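Q: I'm writing a short methods note and want an example of a predicted protein-small molecule complex. Could you take the sequence and the SMILES for pyridoxal-5'-phosphate and return the bound structure as tokens? Please keep the output block clean; save any remarks for afterwards.
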Amino acid sequence: MANTADKLAASALEAVDRMDFSKSRDLQPKAHRLIPGGAHTYAKGDDQYPEQAPGFIARGKGCHVWDLDGNEYIEYGMGLRAVTLGHAFEPVVEAAYKQMQLGTNFSRPAKIEVDLAEVMLEILDGADMVKFAKNGSDVTTAAVKLARAYTGRDLVAICDDHPFFSVDDWFIGTTEVNAGIPQAVSRLSLKFSYNDLGSLRRLFDQHPNQIACVVLEPENAVPPAPNYLAQVKDLCEERGAVLFFDETITGFRWHLAGAQKFHGVVPHLSAFGKAMGNGFAVAALAGKRDIMRLGGLDHDQPRVFLLSTTHGAETHALAASLETIRIYRERHVVEFLWKQGERLRSLVHRSVAENRLEGFFGLAGRPCNLIFFTHDQEQQRSQPFRTLFMQELIRRGVIGPSFVVSFSHSDADIDRTAEAVHGALVVYRKALDEGVAKYLEGRPIKPVYRKFN
Ligand SMILES: Cc1ncc(COP(=O)(O)O)c(C=O)c1O
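A: Understood, no commentary inside the block.
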């Protein structure tokens, strides 16, 4: 194996010489001059990628993308996990295009709003009403607002182990990047730990009758302990709080109906986004009628201003979602995501063992949503090693901030990725032995949640 590994490392070095990022490099200063951060989403920013990385993507097809300089890559976690079928996936593009020709936005609702609502509620057990929006942040924030109105309470209990819920103040105010957010707002959000029912119970005990809702992803990198989610629900009901599952990632991945279906625990409210429209901007807040109806016209409570925006129900995004759901059902997309993730996982595990990297590099999460961890010689989380690994993947034609697969990742794509991973891990091993600085070209990636640049 050492020979194969050495050959892979050598062929990687040849690849470096061939990779040209000059057009990307020319455009980057302009992007930073015109756009704060040089990109509209922080997760896509230059500080999240190695220096030796493509600056801009020109186009994508399936799970392949081409950068501005014409370099081709297999991509993972496409569109921040939104593009689950594949880039430019023809039936979805076609459905959206057909709808665009009929008009995208009118003075009164379009019938397609009702059509998608019907389909979503058919999919989701225990949800009675649904409202659409353009992104996950809006629907998670709407859930918090509804829960506050419904309970008449101000505090929100947020799971501390889950990385992201919303761009809005109730969540970002709890992170390091809290500039511009009044402390009075941040103080209303409290933190509990996942899989630690006691930590949530303590919050309820410390703030009796003040917590409006409990916010968590049903699952992230770590699975729920047996019965944990059901116990969280029982505790919420006992203390009069709303249980809200953020299924922005887990929805359409763990199961079409989300991790709530996978784990058999129905929350009072849940949010879907990302994969709903294969990259088209569509998200949904779904839940129990007695809560959701506060955003409606048929009650005598104070009205909740619920998700009313100009672009909220653009018809072509709803058409994309209907078609995405049709394809999921017809072609068993979720099963495929799990299968391909499993294929990649077993190949990566083999390379980890061959390079004696147990404890230094590894995978976490379900096969449908694999992430990797990178540790240094002391087995501590390491951004330099993450950067090095991503740099070495890019050299070998893979953009991999995660290993989140799509319906377009064929066996051949997975196998090619596994070869790239193997080559990258050969370098990783050397960097552990000889020092990461010797192999890392440029500065390391920085954490997104940091106070200063
Ligand atoms: C779990 C989770 N919730 C909510 C969001 C916010 O979604 P959006 O970026 O569409 O506003 C994200 C985005 O990454 C997410 O991962």
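A: Remarks, as requested: The pocket of pyridoxal-5'-phosphate is lined by residues 80, 135-137, 140, 164-167, 217, 246, 248-249, 273 (CB under 6 Å). Confidence is low (pLDDT under 50) at residues 1-5.
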